[in-house]
Structures are given as structure tokens and as C-alpha cells.
Design goal:
The model has no long low-confidence stretch (mean pLDDT about 85). The N and C termini lie far apart (about 40 Å). By secondary structure, the chain is mainly α. The protein is about 65% helix and about 0% strand. The chain has one domain.
Length: about 90
Amino acid sequence: MVGGALLIAGLASRPVGLVLAVNMIVAYLSVEDDRMKVLNIFTKPEDFLQADPFFFLLTAILVLAFGAGIFSVDAILARTAFSKYNVR
């Protein structure tokens, strides 16, 4: 719950994205029906893409890769509180 709230706010988004991505991979591998979807990803990708944890995993990986964006708490803190430490 805390990781999801931090992800929504955009605070410590990349570490939280990593933790949530690992969490969703474990969610895939914990359920026997979803485990078979992971194993058959190349033969039947639509089953993998329609599983419940897929969109949570996708969101966590996107935030991990690209960050939270310009309207996140991380970006606002970087522009205001830590602006004197930026070298330009």
C-alpha cells in the first residue's frame, strides 16, 4: 500500500518501481494459472497480457525506466529544494 501511494505521488519512484515490479513478478509466479501464462508467453501472449498483474507490472516497469515525470514530488523537490546543488 505504501509503495503504491509513493508511486502515485511520484516520491522515490524508481526504487518503488523496482520493488513493485519484483512484487508483480512474484504475483505472476505464485498463482498456478498465471505461472502457466508466463511459461507460454511466446506461444500464447494474449493470456499473459490479459492476466490481472500485467498492468501493474507494466506500470512499475515504465516508472522504473522513465521516472515519474515533471509533475511528481521528486521533480518538484529537484526544482525547488535542491536547485542550489544543480551544476549548470
